[in-house]
Amino acid sequence: QVQLVESGGGLVQPGGSLKLSCAASGFTLADYAIGWFRQAPGKGREKVSCSSSDGSLDYADSVKGRFTISRDNAKNTVYLQMNSLKPEDTGIYYCAKRYFCASPPSLDWGQGTQVTVSS
Fold it and tell me: pLDDT tens digits for 2-30?
């Protein structure tokens, strides 16, 4: 059974950092792309970053230079290091499994972890 479990969210002040984790099980992580998405209150879900199975990475313009995605296939985990956080980064962060970063659909989703950036 495929499972994706996010953790690491919380409340942080503007300018602070958080590191999110996406623990995967039930499939071979190395064979799939994993994307991080977020949904702010009252807005649609947007893709923040993605790590493909061939090692390529992509980022939304709004997070370039501040967020870093990485994966450890041996630990079946994908990470999202978030630095210089801004209030507009607030939202529920989800990880999702895809065949390719550039192409929906997302096959499976985690339950999400809340990130709140506020003073």
Answer: 999 999 999 999 999 999 999 999 999 99
